[in-house]
Input
Amino acid sequence: MSHDSLRDRIDTSKPHSARFWNYFVGGKDNYEVDREIGDQIKSIFPGLVDVAVTSRRFLGRAVTYLAGEQGVRQFLDVGTGLPTADNTHEVAQRVAPDARIVYVDNDPIVLAHANALLTSTAEGRTAYLDADLYDPQAVLKAAAGTLDLSRPVGLMILNTLGHVADYERARELVRQLMAGLAAGSYLVISDSTATSEGMIAASEAYNASGAVPYYVRPVAEIAGFFDGLELVEPGVVRVPEWRAEESGVGGAGASAAAVDAYCGVGRKR
Output
């Protein structure tokens, strides 16, 4: 797809989740409309910035765990968002230079920045697909061009499932994606949760801004995405608490209690 046709698909008149998140983690790929709603939401609920930052750190710990301790050499990152520092391929290939990573997004602002992601070690491979979470079979078919789906894959769906309004539909999308992956594959999820009045108010303000809505869910619904999988310890927890002892950043404690986002990693038997 040409850059011109991508630009035609980009709407800068409304806030956008990838640009909004990019602003919160200190990126440069955002517009005034994103910064305005970002500042408004920070005034309502400053803790959302902590959610953005700690979720990014969770990505690093989860990918390091899968590549380093479990020997996973393939990753499928669905709804990847805008590139910042320590993207999935950078973390994975730092541990395992031969790792292969496929990013999936159908968002024009993200696709326009795909070249920033399309780097790889000589031994590994990185690919970017213009595909839709709502069509899992198309995602799997396209990913098979880069990944060997008969071998384990780490499926990353971070801060994305909140865009799927219907919970049962979201669960079915996850189920279909995992059904197409080999035994020994892993599901990695993080999402904001309806665990404080501040987060609920922030979600309502964001959804009222004209952006594509993002729905925060109860923790039990986040856990439900892992039904049928073997949860990796410590289970479904707040994002700063997942294997925090293995990192000098984003650790548990008083600050972790204030983060309204939960995560987990589950293994397909």
Remarks:
- Residues 248-254 have pLDDT under 50 and may be disordered.
- The beta strands are 74-78, 100-105, 125-130, 154-158, 186-192, 230-231, 237-238, 261-267.
